[in-house]
Amino acid sequence: MIINWKKIAKNIYDELKINISEINWNKPKLGAILVWENSPSLRYIKQKNKWAKYVWIDFELKNFNNSVTEQELLNFIEKWNNDDEVSWYIIQLPLPEHINSEKVLNAIKPKKDVDWFHPENQWKVLIWDKTGFSPCTPYWVMWIFESLNIDLVWKEITVIGQSNIVWKPMAVMLMNAWATVISCNIDTPNIYKYTKKSDIVVMAAWVPGLLKLENINKNTIIIDVWFTVIEWKIYGDADFEKINNNWNLITPVPGWVWVLTVANLLKNTYKAFLQNK
Amino acid sequence: MIINWKKIAKNIYDELKINISEINWNKPKLGAILVWENSPSLRYIKQKNKWAKYVWIDFELKNFNNSVTEQELLNFIEKWNNDDEVSWYIIQLPLPEHINSEKVLNAIKPKKDVDWFHPENQWKVLIWDKTGFSPCTPYWVMWIFESLNIDLVWKEITVIGQSNIVWKPMAVMLMNAWATVISCNIDTPNIYKYTKKSDIVVMAAWVPGLLKLENINKNTIIIDVWFTVIEWKIYGDADFEKINNNWNLITPVPGWVWVLTVANLLKNTYKAFLQNK
Lengths: 277, 277
Hints:
Two copies of one chain form a homodimer.
Chain A (H helix, E strand, L loop, with lengths): L4 H17 L7 E6 L4 H16 L3 E6 L6 H12 L6 E4 L9 H6 L12 H8 L9 H12 L8 E6 L5 H10 L3 E6 L6 H4 L4 E5 L16 E4 L3 E3 L2 E3 L4 H6 L10 H21 L1
Parallel strand pairs in A: 1-2, 1-3, 4-5, 4-6, 6-7
Antiparallel strand pairs in A: 8-9
């Protein structure tokens, strides 16, 4: 049974639209810096542009060609850091090899850091300081739980993953929400021992088909966070079709990931706008 | 069966002593700022002084009386931040109420931050950047595993706690070490379901006697991280006596906590000395 992510996303967008319509001084603006014109980045940026317009957030794309120097990029970041009209901005990754990505990402003003790359926002997740911005992917997972009215305090949640940007903040955010969290990595022996007993399983392993119907119980809710592309086909970590047919609540792969990630991006843009004003 | 923490601490001290004896330009120095002369702080400082001398680290105590202003404290911190001879320093908590502790702690130069209070060191734990300093308590727990030659990759570890300074970094450090981590909080229903099956249980709940012999299996290793004082007696979270008599490996409460925490403090002082030189 598919979790009604469209409704969840629509609620986020509609709430945002109302909030933003009530602002009577100026509009929030989301910026995007694109250096390398690879097609996933372009697709993602189109989505951002489309939904930003929908909620009346201005969107500005700054395009650099591949020969841009690190210093030119840093200068432009400095400009946007000091531009009161840009509430928040993103730097589309990957950057060309001649540019030190870490240095560039650390130059973003923490209060304008859309993708949770700045240390200041990272540690705020760890210490549960809600003035910081959360990484967009775990953030929408939390948003799903809220929309489904799930009280996490009494839930056992298995999180399977391997990354600094999704797996670890996801586990910490669930700990902050006072859930019981079982954190497995891709080498954990017999992960199914945990998934079979859990109320919720969050898959962020990037291993297609890792979770099958027989690895869960009849009440388990499955959040499949991202996807893997193999020969132009898109796979999640869970066997979506069989699990979906079996009444277990599950997020569909693909499609929805873009929409919810962008929704939270815009939600954070609004938050940044209020903090920076 | 008590984990031989004395041997572990002695190894740390002896290794440090050798490393420091080989330095031929100048000696590392640990500083301590004490404002409020409460007796636990004084006892802790005496331990630091004693063991610092043992490994040939200089120790300097700066004492302020209770009427010190926030600005005076910040000025002194600025002085030590810029003093090449002070490798690292601590600010003994709690501070008097008229002083903003967060502001004071954030003023410490990250590379001299002994107690892991600075954001920069906190996020380095989250992203597994080993140039940062680790919080001393979870750090010695990791040190115990290393000393016992335990390969964490194949272990299931239950961590029970509630704090930002021990529980969360402990869980994250174990995730970084690629263990399977079950994180329970003090409201988790039936924690014994997890403790009974785990290879290792780390108790940081501050609930005396929470873990009894019947809540573990015959191979479970128990790390009891801190202690609670009730009517002048000191209790750990685990029923030390019975568990100890039953061949389960366990850390003793009290006594050893001071020694290992101070050992890691001095280990970090040496690391800071090398980074700052």
